[in-house]
Amino acid sequence: MTALWAYLALSVLLGWGCLAGPRGTKAQQPGTPLSDQEYHQFFEFLRVTIQASTACHLRELYGCKNSLVQRLDEYENHGIIPPGPICSELPENPFFHNFCTFSLYRCIMKKYFLKVSYLAIS
């Protein structure tokens, strides 16, 4: 059953992508329904957020040493998981011992789209 769940989660995650919508479009009157384009943007954001949440559940369930979790980390980092230390764009806690700690922090705090700002020099 766990393998099936992991397979389904991976299937969802393989659809990762981000669709940027146009900025600066005129706001609609409060209380009116969304336009077709606005609905698309709204549900695209939800889809990406749900995928990030699913990746966090995998990380929490299996840990950072799991091959599936490591593949996701490699994907996020262009093929190589940074060894650490890691610096983030988060001013209150910019330093993390390694990428696993950084990723777990993102999951726990639900800051799914927090990025590594640069790699610290050890």
TrEMBL record:
Cellular component, GO annotation: acrosomal vesicle; nucleus
Function: Acrosomal protein that maintains proacrosin (pro-ACR) as an enzymatically inactive zymogen in the acrosome. Involved also in the acrosome formation.
Signal peptide: 1-20
Entries under InterPro entries matching the protein: Proacrosin-bd
Localization: Cytoplasmic vesicle, Secretory vesicle, Acrosome
UniProt lineage: Eukaryota, Metazoa, Chordata, Craniata, Vertebrata
Superkingdom assignment: Eukaryota
Entry keywords, A to Z: Cytoplasmic vesicle, Phosphoprotein, Signal
Pfam families linked to this entry: PBP_sp32 (PF07222)
Name of the protein in its database record: Acrosin-binding protein
